[in-house]
Design brief:
Length: 251
């Protein structure tokens, strides 16, 4: 059954008439970009697709969607450097409030439950606006890719995508207004904070301690030679937890 978009909440920024539902699209990101370019969409628009056959993740990875199994949407907002974190915290709060699920941010753009991915976030720019793409594993009964999970696999019952969206957008609207304070909330939900990590960047591998998240959502690391390094989300391909020195000492 396709989505009943009339049952989705409309707020003050993401108003009901700005929710655009498509049965089948190559990519909700691409559609949002076209609608901005041709002057149809501005801040507050939400593009949702039941089936996405040419969707994109970060670094050119594929993100496909098939009907009720998953939820793929893109929303349009004014640019700000904290959008990935605001979106990630909103997904985490929705999962907690609606399904009592405890999830974490695997910085910069994944949401995980016990290390298994449940959601990916992709932020892109067009003109003076940002397009934020969200892909969530909702009703899959087997993990859709390696090391993944879905809401249904976690709570063991079918999930309404309309309910998820109706809960997520009011939470997101509040989080978009919160400014830098969101970083304090994000810190409580970060995988690997204070741990030793290995980072795959565009320019090679960095190893060190994940110290904090800075005021612009950047990752602050103390690398092996003791220097402090700041990394923006776009610079980081992958973060892997290393055994930390204490763990190594006890082996
Ligand atoms: C990632 O994990 O690399 C980010 C995945 C983002 C996927 C979403 S699904 C909705 C939107 N449309 C796309 O083509 N991609 C994003």
């Amino acid at each position: 059954m396709s989505m009943d978009v009339d049952r989705v909440y409309g707020g003050s920024l993401f108003t009901k008439e700005k929710f655009l539902f498509y049965q089948r699209l190559p990519s909700t990101q691409g559609r949002a970009r076209e609608l901005i370019r041709n002057g149809t969409a501005d801040a507050g628009y939400v593009i949702i697709a039941d089936e996405q056959y040419n969707g994109r993740g970060r670094f050119g990875r594929e993100w496909l969607a098939e009907g009720e199994k998953s939820l793929t949407f893109s929303f349009v907002v004014k640019k700000n450097p904290l959008l990935t974190i605001q979106t990630a915290v909103s997904v985490i709060e929705t999962l907690k409030e609606e399904y009592n699920l405890k999830s974490e941010i695997k910085w910069p753009n994944d949401i995980v439950i016990d290390g298994r991915k449940i959601c990916g976030i992709l932020v892109e720019m067009e003109k003076n606006l940002a397009i934020v793409g969200v892909g969530i594993n909702v009703n899959e009964t087997i993990p859709p890719y390696d090391n993944a999970t879905s809401i249904r696999l976690e709570i063991k019952r079918p999930v309404s995508r309309e309910l998820f969206l109706s809960s997520f957008f009011p939470i997101l609207e509040e989080n978009l207004k919160r400014g830098n304070i969101i970083i304090e909330t994000a810190r409580k939900h970060l995988s690997f904070l204070g741990r030793y990590v290995e980072i795959e960047t565009k320019d090679g591998i960095l190893k060190g301690e994940f110290i904090d998240i800075g005021g612009n959502g950047e990752m602050i690391m103390r690398v092996e030679n003791g220097a402090m390094v700041s990394l923006l989300p776009g610079e980081v391909k992958k973060v892997i937890k290393q055994k930390d020195y204490r763990e190594v000492a006890f082996v």
